[in-house]
What does this fold into?
Amino acid sequence: MDAQTEPEVPPVVAATEEPFLGPLDIVLLLVLVAGAAWYLLKNKKKEAQTSQFKSYSIQPTAVNTMTMAENSFIKKLKSSGRRLVVFYGSQTGTAEEFAGRLAKEGLRYQMKGMVADPEECDMEELLTLKDIDKSLAVFCLATYGEGDPTDNCMEFYEWIQNNDVDFTGLNYAVFGLGNKTYEHYNKVGIYVDKRLEELGASRVFELGLGDDDANIEDDFITWKDKFWPAVCDHFGIESTGDEVLTRQYRLLEQPETSPERLYTGEVARLHSLQTQRPPFDAKNPFMAPIKINRELHKSGGRSCMHIEFDIEGSKMRYEAGDHLAMYPVNDSDLVTRLGKLCNADLDTIFSLINTDTDSSKKHPFPCPTTYKTALTHYLEITALPRTHILKELAEYCSDEKDKEFLRFMSSTAPEGKAKYQEWVQDSSRNIVHVLEDVPSCHPPIDHICELLPRLQPRYYSISSSSKLYPTTVHVTAVLVKYVTKTGRTNNGVATTFLAQKKVNGESLPRVPIFIRKSQFRLPAKTETPVIMVGPGTGLAPFRGFIQERDFNKQEGKEIGQTVMYFGCRKRSEDYIYEEELEDYVKRGVISLRTAFSRDQPQKVYVTHLLEEDMDLIWEVIGVNKGHFYICGYVRRSNRNLQTSRSPISLSLSSFSDAKNMATDVRNILLKVLQTKGNMSESEATQYVKKMEAQKRYSADVWS
It folds into this structure.
């Protein structure tokens, strides 16, 4: 009975032999495993992405911190036991040179110094400079353009201008570099000196002002010879004695350097002139083909070139009024002569290495290179040598009379300064001439390379409009050539270089260039009337302006009254762009007033025409709120052509006293406002200042 009532139990062995999971179970299990795997993989990807994001966000911070440490002038001062930092605002190298001389002389006064570029420094560190005992900041600042700071000083200038920081405890001094032919003479140096005092800093010595139209070297020497005693008095220190001449760079000859590692004229990046890539700028110029190089003067023995540069494919853009900058090369004959005077093998490969390991400037120019390349591409061998160069050259004279002569000219004695003015400045002696006329002086070529300033780009007003010529840039340049008091013929570096770039056949000559923006602009509204005063090659930017006005007129736009004042010597000789200008007059684009100073017994200049046209001038600028432009370039014969602003172009002006052109024209403008606008003298002055602030009055006068 029990056997019948109990259910049947399957044998155990049979149960173990059957599959544990059925087909459906296996499918479900696979789905679960796949889901778990997907979930884990997803989380790992998130972690990896999070990890990558974190490292990406941290990395720039680490890099920036390192960069700031390298550019921390405070850390450099502290680590090397220095107390003096000399900042420079320089467009052509003069202010940088003066800064270097001050920093070097600091050793003599127990003020070990360093030179610093504001653009490469965290200038807010000035707030902590006071933490270094007996510390001093000196600023050598050039004024550029119409009262503007130089490119490398712009950020610092705007910082102190726009922020009320507390400079209490900061000791400072300022030396400004400018040119009295400009309206805003030394504006930057004057402002920084005043502003630092307003912000609580302590002026250690009075503001120094150098005038490049006179003798900026003498201005600088006179200032610094009073500056150092004032520094000693302020800090209670004494001079260590006579100046000891020391080298800033050490020579390293590198004969084994391969051609691939050798600089051959590049500004910064190796092979940048051969392997071109944008963007193109001062450190990466574009090798532009010259499509046209033609003579503009018809006769008279002088030369004025119209040159067209091809910029197609460069991605460079320009507007009428901008500047074209060009890197020239020195004359090969001068280079060879200098090499022989120094008994040098110009093919020697070398580097000059800064003995100051804390300096951000490791070399004075791209190295390694050859002496021939350095003298051809990197050094200003036609510049008139300053007194500190003569002082160092004196040490290489074998004749005591020659040595004393050079030392005498480099001294601060009034007689020595007068001799320097007469023998170097007025006689236009460059380094080659000095060594030729002091026969016992044979300096080593590497020291010459250390002493000479860098060869700077030359700037030219662009004489075309991109509206008509988007792929070419035109410039107008007078060939500089003059005979000095010693009977030598001096040639302008850049214009001589350009004159040799003749266009023959299909292979076009190439020149390294870049575009620099300008504030010299036509009014935004085409119907606004304008008056343009441009004698000689001062016509250059106005040619671009007129082209643009003509373009707008042909586009159907209304253009305002456009009055052009042009002057030159003779209509038959140097009336440049005559056909173009006369055509614009015929088509009603411009009104043209010309003065040919030597075409009649009594000389007539543009200023005479302006005085005749006072009613017209008042109508344009007073009644119709038009714009007034002045542009003119003056060749300073028997003078150093290197200025605190590189010359755009050089010409003999059509004014009786061309140096004062801007002042003469401005005075006529003030007279117009007083006589035709019934303003007092102060009201007229304020009116012109208001015009300047509104960009309605623009003067671009270079000497």
